[in-house]
């Protein structure tokens, strides 16, 4: 049996202020009192991401600096920062990779607001560990890009797919020099493909084409799969007999020998399962069966190759490809950390050292340096260092049937309390809404509310993602209707099962969740005692006129599918036009710079409230689609607690 030793002392990089360079102190983790300090929960996260360099000489840290991200490189020999920089206001950094021993690449894009899920297009950057020779090596303008491979056998270049608008978005493969930014076209892709995928060595091996005409229903176009056979150089087309319009397909990775490719698809299934495609024999084998949710992600080993797959039907489960060394190592580490979710963020070239990331419903995330030879895990840093796992509230998965028999999944976070009496309940509705869902794991909002004595109920109502296309599409056209009924049924479930006290329930949500909160108190005027709408949609007709969704043909097509075009029905399911039915106090929170749900929604609703004499409070700050700046979060959450306390206690 493998034994993992966990050592809780190595170093912590502490930022006195994210406006300055970080300082370093040596310290052991200390127990902290269970005081409800908003800063402990919502301060900028220094350690969003942490990766070790190929030689093990550096740590590369991606930090949250409020309305932007910042990269910091730590010299491990001295435990001191040698470079620190950011790209600009509202620029969020992702896809950070070491390409050589001294040089790394990253993407940065504009995101205005915490819940902005339609971020601006990314640009591609490269920099040296010491911060020198920083360069934007690809700018998204007449063409976009997607990173295909770091080209492990060519340290000076990376492989990208370049998407030209004049070619209707068809990708063309190019090689970029990470030092100069010089780009070179590689004529190696199938005709009409819209997605390319490379194997572990950086060779283009897969292509996918989806075509949807103006006459096709939303998401009901035709698909084609292209591949290069194992050991071959010519592209071939594969027709999958069981693949029908509306089915989805995602490439997930290759086997170590590059013969097999793994595919996520819902062909022959209501949820996305994992398939293995033999590029030599053309055989397709289904690896997972009868799953209760879509496959969520791949699990990677020390070399970055696929070793398994993760599902999140309620908590998380993993299916490993085979009993390899990497598989046994991950299973042993997870066991050593009490069954927490463990991922390998990065490893040295010799695979002797790796950074592992652990998290759970009560652990916001911790980074450890793992020695693969001695099997020792040394603590590096915690994402929220002032929060102690033992003082956090567990997130309990729930499952029940809605009024029409549809099975619904969700989560209940109960505060730690001495009394058996039901706690005041916050019904928290997720945004999106289509394709988005609530997950098991650490939720900062939930923990802050629980620390203040509130229970939090979350429900993956129909239309949410993760539970198959039928469940997803069953929410189309059901805004304010069956989707809202599901939230209502979840609330009644909590009451009937003794988790909530009738008369002490408030409904809260952001974006679509803000819409649902207002529709909840409109449709169920006696069920909730208050409502909070955070950057919410309040007028369905206005969605066709304002914001960034109707700016594209695909956006308009999406709106027609999910909310419809009948003006009278849109008004009947809009808080702005039904405001006179509200009987409880309302708190509205909005960002003046929100481009997803512009201020026009907030303004129309407050005008309706004034007309009908509705009791409401507001908080508007210079933010986008959700608050990101520390000072605004520090103001928002105590005010939310104050509002809930006033109307629930």
Automatic annotation (TrEMBL):
Keywords, ordered alphabetically: Aminopeptidase, Hydrolase, Protease, Signal
One BP annotation, GO: proteolysis
A GO MF term: aminopeptidase activity
Domain of life according to the entry: Bacteria
Statement: the UniProt record of this protein carries the keyword Protease: yes
UniProt-listed InterPro entries: AB_hydrolase_fold (IPR029058), Peptidase_S9_cat (IPR001375)
Signal peptide: 1-27
A family per Pfam: Peptidase_S9
Peptidase S9 prolyl oligopeptidase catalytic domain span: 440-649
Designated name of the protein: Secreted dipeptidyl aminopeptidase
Source organism per UniProt: Idiomarina loihiensis (strain ATCC BAA-735 / DSM 15497 / L2-TR)
């Amino acid at each position: 049996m493998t034994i993992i030793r966990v050592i809780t002392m190595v170093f912590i990089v502490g930022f006195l202020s994210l406006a300055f360079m970080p300082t370093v102190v040596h310290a052991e983790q200390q127990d902290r009192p269970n005081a409800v300090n908003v800063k402990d929960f919502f301060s900028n996260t220094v350690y969003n991401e942490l990766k070790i360099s190929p030689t093990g000489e550096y740590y590369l840290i991606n930090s949250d600096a409020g309305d932007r991200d910042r990269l910091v490189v730590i010299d491990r020999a001295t435990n001191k920062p040698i470079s620190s920089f950011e790209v600009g206001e509202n620029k969020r950094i992702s896809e950070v990779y070491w390409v050589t021993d001294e040089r790394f690449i990253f993407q940065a894009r504009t995101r205005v607001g915490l819940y902005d899920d339609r971020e601006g297009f990314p640009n591609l950057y490269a920099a040296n560990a010491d911060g020198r020779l920083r360069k934007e090596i690809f700018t998204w303008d007449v063409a976009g890009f997607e990173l295909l491979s770091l080209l492990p056998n060519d340290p000076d270049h990376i492989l990208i797919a370049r998407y030209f608008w004049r070619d209707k978005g068809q990708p063309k493969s190019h090689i970029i020099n990470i030092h100069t930014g010089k780009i070179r076209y590689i004529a190696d892709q199938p005709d009409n493909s819209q997605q390319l995928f490379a194997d572990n060595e950086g060779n283009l091996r897969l292509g996918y084409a989806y075509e949807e005409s103006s006459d096709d229903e939303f998401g009901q176009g035709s698909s084609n799969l292209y591949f290069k056979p194992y050991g071959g150089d010519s592209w071939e087309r594969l027709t999958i007999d069981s693949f029908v319009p509306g089915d989805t397909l995602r490439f997930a990775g290759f086997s170590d020998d590059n013969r097999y490719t793994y595919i996520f698809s819902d062909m022959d299934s209501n949820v996305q399962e994992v398939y293995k495609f033999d590029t030599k024999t053309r055989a397709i084998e289904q690896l997972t069966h009868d799953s209760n949710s879509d496959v969520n992600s791949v699990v990677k080993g020390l070399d970055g190759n696929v070793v398994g797959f993760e599902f999140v039907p309620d908590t998380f489960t993993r299916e490993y490809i085979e009993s390899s060394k990497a598989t046994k190592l991950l299973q042993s580490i997870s066991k050593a950390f009490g069954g927490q979710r463990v991922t390998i963020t990065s490893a040295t070239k010799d695979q002797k050292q790796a950074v592992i990331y652990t998290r759970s419903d009560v652990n916001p995330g911790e980074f450890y340096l793992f020695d693969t030879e001695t099997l020792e895990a040394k603590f590096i840093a915690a994402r929220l260092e002032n929060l102690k796992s033992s003082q956090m509230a567990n997130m309990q998965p729930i499952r029940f049937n809605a009024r029409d028999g549809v099975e619904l999944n969700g989560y209940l976070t109960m505060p730690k309390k001495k009394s058996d009496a039901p706690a005041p309940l916050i019904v928290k509705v997720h945004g999106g809404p289509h394709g988005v869902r609530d997950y098991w794991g650490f939720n900062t909002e939930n923990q802050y509310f629980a620390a203040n004595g509130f229970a939090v109920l979350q429900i993956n109502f129909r239309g949410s993602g993760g539970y198959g296309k039928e469940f997803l599409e069953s929410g189309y056209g059901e805004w304010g209707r069956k989707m809202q009924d599901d939230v209502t049924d979840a609330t009644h479930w909590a009451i009937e099962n003794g988790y909530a006290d009738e008369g002490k329930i408030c409904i809260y949500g952001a974006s679509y969740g803000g819409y649902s909160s207002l529709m909840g108190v409109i449709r169920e005027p006696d069920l909730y005692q208050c409502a909070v709408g955070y950057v919410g949609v309040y007028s369905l007709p206005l969605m066709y006129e304002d914001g960034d969704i109707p700016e594209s043909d695909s956006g308009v097509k999406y709106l027609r599918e999910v909310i419809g075009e009948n003006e009278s029905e849109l008004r009947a399911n809009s808080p702005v036009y039904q405001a006179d039915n509200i009987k409880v106090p309302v708190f509205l929170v909005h960002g003046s710079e929100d481009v997803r749900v512009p201020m026009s929604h907030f303004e129309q609703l407050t005008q309706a409230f004034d007309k009908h004499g509705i009791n409401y409070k507001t908080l508007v700050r210079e933010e986008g689609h959700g608050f990101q700046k520390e000072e605004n979060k520090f103001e928002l959450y105590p005010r939310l607690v104050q509002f809930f306390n006033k109307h629930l206690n």
